[in-house]
Amino acid sequence: MAGIYVDWGGHKLKLTWMEEVMPERELITSVHAFCFHEGQLLMVNLNDRGWDFPGGHIETGETVEACVCREVMEEAYVMGDCTLLGAIEVNHEENPLWNPSSPYPEVGYQVFYRMDITEFLPFDAAFESSERMLIRPEEAAHYHKGWQKGFDEIMETALRVRGLSIRKLQPQETPPYDLLLLADPSRELVNAYIAEGECYIAEEQNDSIGVFVMVPLTNGTVEIKNIAVREDKQGHGIGRKLLQEAIEIAKSNGYKSIEIGTGNSSIDQLALYQKCGFRISDIIKDFFVQYYDEVIMENGIQCKDMILLRMEI
Fold first, then answer.
1. Concatenated DSSP letters for 267-307?
2. Three-state DSSP state, 156
3. What's the first-to-final CA gap in the chain, in angstroms?
4. Which fold has domain 4-160?
């Protein structure tokens, strides 16, 4: 959206909704969730400001998604699957009352997720809220006393994004080659590492839109051999969601580190992997020249070298 100006307690701020953006962690001031169940929106009655969306501040050592899951649990007593929507940039550069000693950055971000609720727990009201309810999404502005124009765009994004389910490919199922070959054009190599590892499929309403394959290595390390998102679904935070799921699977299986590789020409993938916490660990020169029959071009660059990245977990 184009930036809008608001008055928060006498402070003139510029707010800009940025879809699919995940800011640097130190610039995030709060994390919030639009939670849905069977087409209805969940609202919580907060003790200090009335009906609102669950959300709050990141605690020390907490990831952004872990924060939103905790806040939703504390305020609404529900669990679910999260999908990144984007962030509101909160800009104080034109605020004459801006205090440089403020604990918040001059340009900060409020991150928003969609949560598709999978479980309702007994509502104990032990934290910051007194009640919860489900409403029609179009009723949100009626209940939320601080509703602003930017929330309309977030709601539009949330209604457009469906929750993901990620499951392991069953032995009797055919691998989703249409997805796997997006990341690796060699069917022979794809078949080889699927046989060695485990393939996971991301689905929306039983429609396969993403995939990743994990292969165990030695010394407590597992490698993501293939990760891909269907072309019409790219740019919606799904790749990040797949990576996060792969990391959680690796942790739950007792691995100590996780590796992933990509080509020197894969600029977007290199950026995403590093934003998710991976660091470049090695370069295998001429890997794609040696093992692939056809020349691979991407972003106007010939893909020659394998860039390996690693994360300690």
1. HHHHHHHHHTT-EEEEEETTHHHHH-SS--EETTEE---EE
2. helix
3. 37
4. Nucleoside Triphosphate Pyrophosphohydrolase (3.90.79)
**How far is CA 246 from its chain centroid?**
12
For residues 257 and 312, what is the distance between their CA atoms, to the nearest angstrom? 4
φ, ψ dihedrals at 268, nearest 5°: -65, -40
pLDDT tens digit sequence for 16-48: 999 888 999 999 999 999 999 988 999 999 998
Q: What is the pTM of this model?
A: 0.57
Query: Six-digit token pair at 97?
Result: 């009352």
Distance CA 175, CA 173 (A): 6
pLDDT at 98: 86
How does DSSP classify residue 6?
E
Run means of pLDDT, 10 residues per run, the chain, 313 residues? 77 90 93 94 94 95 93 96 91 89 92 93 91 96 89 90 82 96 94 96 88 95 97 84 90 95 95 92 96 93 97 94
At residue 257, the pLDDT reads: 97
SS3 97: coil
| Amino acid making up residue 101 | S
For residues 57 and 96, the answer to whether their CB atoms sit within 8 Å is: no
Task: Write down the domain spans for the chain.
Answer: 4-160, 165-312
Number of other CB atoms surrounding residue 20 within 10 Å: 15
Dist. CA 190–CA 223, nearest whole Å: 14
The alpha carbon of 40 is separated from its chain's Cα centroid by a whole number of angstroms, namely: 22
List the CATH code of the domain at 165-312: 3.40.630.30
